[in-house]
């Protein structure tokens, strides 16, 4: 779901600020604790790649997901003053809360899962896979924060999402659009530079 906010933010941001300006702003991004991103990617890669062949990794994956969320929230807190990051932090916290309450797994309602691949739904029902998600039942805690919202055509991507996902993606959208859209002061400066570069000396005779 996180890709939805990124893609929409890029489209709107590039339309408002221009492609050249957007690329420039991306090259100037400075985030506190940026080293945390590679660490989170490595942890997730290890889990998804080895959990099918290692019972110990599979049994510990729920704790690893909790760790990933904690590190992610620390990173977001360090950058909370940036536009949209407070919403991203809130969305991640809501997902963390429901996962922590359910042993490190994200509950998925059967109604929301019905839009997904039937093969995946069957595996959820049978509990035959160990993953980040599990099928919601009567014992699920904070179920309203789980993946209870189904998305299907005409929405471009079929998926089941949570309230936290929506809040998080709204924050990502705000951050990217703000990043790629020049401020009024910067827009005036760019306009002045463009005007100066196009100034023509009308006092000199023109050669015919």
Write up this protein.
The chain has 208 residues and is mostly helical. The chain has nine helices and four strands. It has a two-stranded parallel ribbon with strand order 1-2. A hairpin with a 7-residue loop joins β3 and β4. The chain is globular and about 60 Å long. The termini are far apart. The relative contact order is 0.16. Residues 199-208 have low confidence and may be disordered.
Shape assignment: globular
Strand content: 5-15%
The main β sheet shows up as: 2 strands, parallel
Q: What distance lies between the first and last C-alpha atoms, to the nearest angstrom?
A: 63 Å
Low-confidence blocks of residues: 199-208
The helicity comes to 55-70%
What's a concise summary of this model?
The longest helix has 24 residues, at 55-78. 61% of the residues lie in helices and 6% in strands.
List keywords for this structure.
single chain, 208 residues, mainly alpha, two-stranded antiparallel sheet, 9 helices, disordered C terminus
